[in-house]
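Q: Here's a chain of 475 amino acids. Please give me its 3D structure as tokens.
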Amino acid sequence: MKTIFEKSNGVTGIELTDEKEDLTFLDKNFVREGEIGLPSVSELEAMRHYKELSDLNFCIEKGFYPLGSCTMKYNPKVNELLAGLEGFINLHPLSEDEDCQGALELMFKLQEALKKITGMDAVTLQPAAGAHGELTGMMVIKKYFEVKGEIRKKVIIPDSAHGTNPASAHLCGFDVVPVKSNEKGQVDVEALKELLDSDVAAIMMTNPNTLGIYEENVLEISKLMHENGSLLYYDGANFNAIMGHTNPKLMGFDVVHLNLHKTFSTPHGGGGPGAGPVCVVEKLKDYLPVPTVAFDGENYYRNYNLKNSVGSVKGFYGNFGVLVRAYAYILMMGDNLKEASENAVLNANYLKEKLKGAYLLPYDEPCMHEFVLSGEKQKHENGVSTLNIAKALMDENTHPPTVYFPLIVHEAIMIEPTESETKQVLDEFVDAMLKIAQVAKTNPEVVISAPHTTPVKRLDETLAARHPDLKYTQQ
């Protein structure tokens, strides 16, 4: 496929004006003398070019997307319709409260829904992504201890945690202390006990964890932390596994962040915009960012009156369009959110049982919404790495799973089917994975050199990382 520069033919798609502008009032140092150097094609040619580009891209509308820990569920198109309503998209962010009662009502009711789903007592919708929610939650925890007059410097994080957990803790000035996993892939409680002292502010956990395994000892961990005067932070990345069955409050957590783009079906595309609401228990509600959205019985309003607030963490009030989509999804699903989690767990266990003979399963435990295989068997026996297996899946109209994470599993292959897929799609994925495992034995070079059918074949990833070609240079 040619670049838009190579397609440039001198045709002008649109003329902004027929008049020649007088630029003599500008300093000549700021006036361009030559051509601007941008491509010039007709409007139709421009449309065709970008349509062709989009057709080369892989998306969930094209095929299976088992990206572990990312929960690539289907985004209902009705959510897009509702988020695009004129009253929402034309609402100015500086509108007075009395002029945006509908938007404030939606945000307030979304807060109430998230409180009910998580069991928590107060919510902020400001954070713009999951990691931003983590950072906000850690800011709340830090401010809580500062107000109490306690200087606690440590945050405990499991060795299977998302990489953003230690990053968020570190950005807030905490020292990160890892705690190892036991033979079942869960937090080693005895190892945790040895780490506890008066300097520990919190533990950051995901439940189920990044191995897709439920932390059976979460209540004991909660008891240990609270007896130590510490708090518990819940990373909501895997919340899609437990909706309606349990919640972070019942597990003993104090702070929760949610990923609306995972659990509540808002788009992932392009790295954002996203939303990472933070929910807290009663004693932490005055530490949330301002404003929150409140209701006085007659009117909805932005409440800036939080005594110990960490301040604002996002311009205006978060990514409103994402909040509309999430609220639409929650209303549409209702009690069926519980069934969504059930199907996500069922699908993951089905795939795990089908594949664990062909691939190594490091932790052979019942999983929740995702599970982690290992390509160590294929690498040791035939020189076929996890990366090769992932590339080969691209020839099967399937997006590769998450690979080489979590770090405690060598040659990790993290698979999350979500509740969106049918048994037929799951069976096709099983067939593809078994086929790759067989070809890895009989003709490993075919897998090592994959993909073979994609628009772009195997790249020199080291060269691309060190010397990215980001600018078109006319020959």
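Q: Can you summarize the key feature?
A: DSSP finds 18 helices and twelve strands in the chain.
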